[in-house]
Fold:
Amino acid sequence: VQLVESGGGLVQPGGSLRLSCAASGFLIKSSEMSWARQAPGKGVEWVSGSSAGDTRAHFRSIYYAGSVKGRFTIDRDDAKNSVYLQLNRLAPEDTAVYYCVKGWGSSGPRGQGTQVTVSS
Structure:
């Protein structure tokens, strides 16, 4: 399992970023995928999760932490074996290292992370 995140950077409050996660060694189509983040001096927070791409429509689930609901959007491209996280209306409290995680939650295998810094 290998997960490689990209797309982080420095952005002003109110700005947007799109994070990407390229997966290899397994097919995300058959895996739940999540994004988690860790702010300086804090624990890992589960930000968003998506049920597996081959889950029947009736059983598909999307999770967002309350702090990001309405601002972040998770999506996946099973053909590219990639997962994305669109971050809108960013605030300084969103500053963290963002990790792509295999599975539902924040405890599964994850990549090296990509830094998101929100500052004016």
Q: What stands out?
A: The chain is about 0% helix and 45% strand. The beta strands are 2-6, 9-11, 17-24, 33-38, 44-50, 62-64, 72-77, 82-87, 96-102, 114-118.
